[in-house]
Write a structure and sequence with these properties.
39% of the residues lie in helices and 23% in strands. By secondary structure, the protein is an alpha+beta fold. It has a seven-stranded mixed beta sheet with strand order 2-1-7-6-5-4-3. The longest helix is centred in the first third of the chain and has 21 residues, at 2-22. It starts with a helix and ends in a 7-residue tail after the last strand. 28% of the residues are buried.
Length: 163
């Protein structure tokens, strides 16, 4: 009788373990999840969706994203965002957005005290100045090192525009 009880218990534990292994794991949020859950990035999220870059920025990465806030987009000349979001301007929107992305996960401590020209996913470089806080071109990093499962986000106060 004790052997039957032990066998049943082992079988139940094994079944519970198998079911647990099959259950979806709750993973850390990725770059898109973090941006979408933060009310300061509604324009950025809409632009990423319009550009068809959601799957890319949900990919393995790692990526470093210099993420402009809604206020940064609002500071652009009137009509700029609306024009970029039009389907016929998708290529230009992709260029602008990928100019905000650097391959690899770069944290602010890796930038401290340095001045670098860094290649973006778009192909051009951005100038990063970490000698007095962190600046990217003329944008100031206002919040650094938001860690995502596939990279890092640095919040910036201006939209970076490629040349």
């Amino acid at each position: 009788m004790n052997r039957r009880f032990a066998l049943r218990t082992l079988a139940a534990v094994g079944l519970a373990g198998a079911l647990t292994a099959c259950a979806p794991m709750k993973s850390e949020p990725d770059i898109v999840d973090i941006a979408a859950s933060n009310g300061n990035f509604t324009t950025l999220v809409a632009a990423v969706q319009a550009a068809g870059l959601v799957d890319t920025l949900k990919g393995d990465g790692p990526f470093t994203v210099f993420a402009p806030t809604d206020a940064a987009f609002a500071a652009l000349p009137e009509g700029t965002v609306e024009t970029l979001l039009k389907p016929e301007n998708k290529d230009q929107l992709v260029k602008v957005l990928t100019y905000h992305v650097v391959p690899g996960a770069v944290t602010s401590d890796q930038l401290a005290g340095k001045r670098l020209n860094v290649a973006t996913v778009q192909g051009q470089t951005v100038h990063v100045d970490g000698t007095n806080g962190v600046r990217v071109n003329k944008a100031r990093v206002t919040s650094a090192d938001i860690i995502a499962s596939n990279g890092v986000i640095h919040v910036i106060d201006k939209v970076l525009l490629p040349k």
